[in-house]
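User: Show me an example of a complex going from sequences to structure tokens.

Assistant: Sure. Here are the input components:
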Amino acid sequence: MPDERTLEVKVWRGGESGRFQAFAVPRRASQTVLDVVTWIQRHLDATLSYRYACRVGMCGSCAMTVNGKPRWTCRTHVDKVADGDTLTVAPLANLPVVKDLATDMAPFFDKWAKAEGRFVPADERPADFHTVPPGTRASRAANAGIECIGCGICYAACDIVRWNRDYLGPAALNRAWTLVNDVRDAGNDVRLAAVAGDAGCHACHSQEGCRTHCPKQINPTASIAGLKRATMVAAFKGRL
Amino acid sequence: MSPFNPVWPVRSHRGYLAFVVHRVSGVGLAVFLPLHFLALGTAIGGEAALEGFLRWTDHPLVKLAETGLVLLLAAHLAGGLRLLALELLGWRDWQKSAVAVAAGFSLAAGLLFLLNLGL
């Protein structure tokens, strides 16, 4: 049976400055926030800009601020987050707004590069597949953070990013931590130096906003704490 | 107009509350420290000056303020221990429990002090 209720949706329109525009959207069973935004664009205002790709929580491109919290909209059910029959949808915080709900993700991913978040093979032409022993402390630490989809939700939830625009952010530091624990990688001296600066892991106040909001249940705060320990050990050993 | 008002929904979790308690208690203690030195400094003016000050601190309202001070100190100490534990011991799923233990410890210390006053 179709749901007769109507959802009042306030959607951010404009760039860095703008206003919320209200739309009335029919409520449906199992409706996601992305369904709502898509319905508005297809039926009410074709000029509404937003971003999505996979719709199944894999690509990390549809994150927005929903009722004040950053969320992956394709996997966020309206029933779980609506304030009665109202929904407020805004772009992700801490990123430049391109238009409406679409943010410029370049600063976010540039910081992955700054954190040396690329794999540096220890052996360029291995004769066989590397063996990664399961169950070791390093492989468990790498596994814990590896499922990041790069949605930017942790970055939007982080007050340190808000206070220090150079701060590398939870996702980039989490990526660095997974590589620090990758036994096949040989880039750790450069990587630890990259994350040990003022805008690196030691700037984190362990507020745990990243961990609280991560849709993949990753704990970047723990990864950053790991980097704090690793950089401390490296400094004691004279490697920093 | 900002798309991010109100600002509290994204911060309404225990980790952020622990941060605020740690920051506010730290600032409170920093503000108190000069007053503490000022009180100790009264000893320079002679025993009578210090005694006069100490007698003033027996006032119930001052004792109550002292309780608040001990609460701040306990909260800051417990928050600091929590942070050290989170960051140095590499705990994963204990963070929320650590927040609860820190809050409980600070409250217990403050209340213990209040009881010891014999009010």
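The lines above are the inputs; the final block is the predicted structure for all two components together. The CA atoms of residues 18 and 99 of chain B lie 6 Å apart.
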